[in-house]
């Protein structure tokens, strides 16, 4: 495994050298994890000019369970109490003879950037930009298999919840139970705060679970994901509570389902991001819900939830094979509730069977 | 309540005007919450020059349960999909006639700062610095009562755990159960990821719970906190599993307990931060643990866990009354385990009875 990380760092350094920077200082947490295999809090990773060094504010490997980074990655734990690993990284880069250092201007605050610049006045600071994020876009099969397990865990947690009695329980308790089940099935934790919405709050993206209790006749929408070895799955489903759904519920569900299917079917290598959004969005626009849609119909997943690409009307770029994304349209009718359906899939060429669905919980409208 | 927020914003604007800036753009999430009463994801708050405006990427009040901000705070939801609320805030400030705008350089990334500067070229950007963080340091009684409830919730969750059987359960499950109990007792969630360490990993600050199971003879250390209305309590306790602690366990416990008590007793208005650290640290140094101590012996709590002040050897400043802090020394002996004891307290003058202990779970060494 350590070779994987070393290879990723070499690729980054090559890119830096091509752009005229002699070393890179990586501070985005997911980027550090991608390149080092570990992401201690507030760590900085210096890639080049000679040795790669992971700089940490305190020793992240000082526990019985944590493994140390392997291969040629050195670990440097800052002495004292006040140091900034990014500043220490710049100091090292200068000491190792680098004349220029590419930093992540979209992660470093203005204040830290100034401190990094001040510590080594002879060192020119360039902007690394989202170079690591771009490298993370296409996943290798090892990463995809982590995502596959993360999706399976979320499916299991959701499946078990559906077998229990739901009426009378609060959104908060359902969310907590789901999170406990994620861990039961091997997740290191939820990928993001589990959202459970009932009745008038069903179908809202990112709804924070409240003390509202599930009632007969409610829509119940659930959005959760598992973190497995740092990789984040995402799934949302909407159910009806009670014997039989109302007509408006069936109609709305079918509209969102049709939109979600259209989005999924558009997931092929070479498809522009915006066309995936369009495919799903136009179904809901035709149903009169155009002004109720969120800014995007899906997004990439990996070491972060909601990473690139954005499947949105103005997004630039085209899908590649082996890019995992969500397709997650939803419609919320104020005062009544709504529907959200969300899967994690991997873009695959048609010759390989097309998009690979990772979250396999049924999308039939279940009455629970 | 809305008057409280308006008064806080007026105070900030006064300070800005005194420093030559005509308006402030606040982007730190806890700072936005402190001044607006709400902190939607990625929101920015423009204070002055005419009206205060909360700028949001999507409508955060589009749910049945969320209240809208009251009083003179306006809410502006960005149209479209690509906007940055901070950029929109700078645009508004310029449109309202401001010639200068103080921004939080310690929260804004270099990239966002550039975008904010580019949108209104006639607008001079100043550094607001940690002005809002400083304003947040001394709490009002309403804030302290939220912290008191948050501490009570953590005490209750911990108390219930101690009544259950612990041997054979994993760190991860204990942590999850604690988090569920926090919510049961009214927390909106854990204040930070609950840490449970057993055996060789006991006593480690911020230990991520693993699948290790509790065994007879282990130290078990637990660190948790509740989030109640945004306010964060923190408590850590260490227990011994089984009939009777070993001699080294009793000795280590007594050392950490004595240090923690010394730290607590130093919490009086006017005491330099570093003297609180010193009071606790010297007890453990005398016991030969000097090189095993963390960088600080405690920290402020409020809308963030680990906010100012830092009770550390090089910290500058003195305690004020009504500043809530933790006192949380710990010692970890590699391969054997360790002890951590942590309370949340409020600094009070001696005339009012001295430091107010919010987390009241016993600090006797319990054998469970």
From TrEMBL, chains A, B:
Residue stretches making up the Creatinase N-terminal domain: 8-138
Protein name: M24 family metallopeptidase
Domain Peptidase M24 residue range list: 146-348
One Pfam family this sequence matches: Peptidase_M24
InterPro entries: Creatin/AminoP/Spt16_N (IPR029149), Creatinase/aminopeptidase-like (IPR036005), Creatinase_N (IPR000587), Pept_M24 (IPR000994), Peptidase_M24B (IPR050659)
Source organism superkingdom: Bacteria
Annotated stretches, region: Disordered: 191-210
PANTHER family to which the protein is assigned, alphabetical: AMINOPEPTIDASE, CYTOPLASMIC PEPTIDASE PEPQ-RELATED
């Amino acid at each position: 495994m350590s070779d994987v990380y070393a290879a990723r760092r070499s690729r980054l350094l090559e890119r830096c050298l091509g752009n005229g920077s002699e070393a890179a200082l990586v501070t985005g947490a997911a980027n550090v994890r991608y390149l080092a295999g570990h992401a201690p809090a507030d760590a900085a990773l210096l890639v080049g000019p000679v040795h790669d060094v992971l700089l940490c504010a305190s020793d992240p490997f000082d526990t019985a369970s944590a493994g140390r980074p392997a291969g040629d990655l050195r670990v440097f734990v800052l002495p004292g109490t006040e140091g900034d690993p990014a500043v220490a990284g710049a100091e090292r880069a200068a000491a190792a003879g680098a004349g220029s250092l590419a930093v992540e201007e979209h992660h470093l605050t203005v204040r830290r950037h100034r401190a990094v610049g001040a510590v080594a006045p002879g060192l020119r600071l360039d902007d690394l930009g989202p170079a690591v994020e771009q490298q993370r876009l296409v996943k290798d099969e090892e990463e995809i298999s982590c995502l596959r397990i993360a999706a399976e865990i979320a499916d299991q947690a959701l499946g078990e919840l559906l077998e229990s009695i739901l009426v009378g329980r609060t959104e908060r308790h359902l969310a907590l139970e789901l999170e406990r089940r994620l861990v039961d099935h091997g997740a290191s934790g939820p990928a993001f705060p589990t959202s459970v919405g009932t009745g008038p709050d069903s179908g809202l993206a990112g709804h924070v679970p409240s003390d509202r209790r599930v009632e007969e006749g409610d829509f119940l929408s659930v959005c959760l994901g598992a973190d497995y070895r740092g990789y984040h799955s995402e799934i949302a489903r909407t159910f009806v509570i009670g014997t039989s759904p109302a007509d408006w519920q069936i109609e709305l569900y079918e509209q969102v389902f049709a939109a979600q299917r259209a989005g999924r079917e558009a997931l092929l290598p070479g498809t522009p991001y915006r066309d995936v959004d369009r495919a799903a969005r136009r179904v809901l626009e035709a149903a009169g819900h155009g002004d109720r849609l969120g800014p995007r119909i899906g997004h990439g997943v990996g070491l972060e939830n909601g990473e690139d690409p954005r499947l949105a009307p103005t997004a630039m770029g085209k899908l590649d094979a082996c890019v995992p994304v969500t397709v997650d349209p939803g419609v919320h009718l104020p005062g009544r509730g709504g529907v959200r359906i969300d899967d994690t899939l991997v873009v695959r060429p048609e010759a390989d069977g097309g998009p690979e669905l990772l979250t396999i919980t049924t999308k039939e409208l279940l009455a629970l």
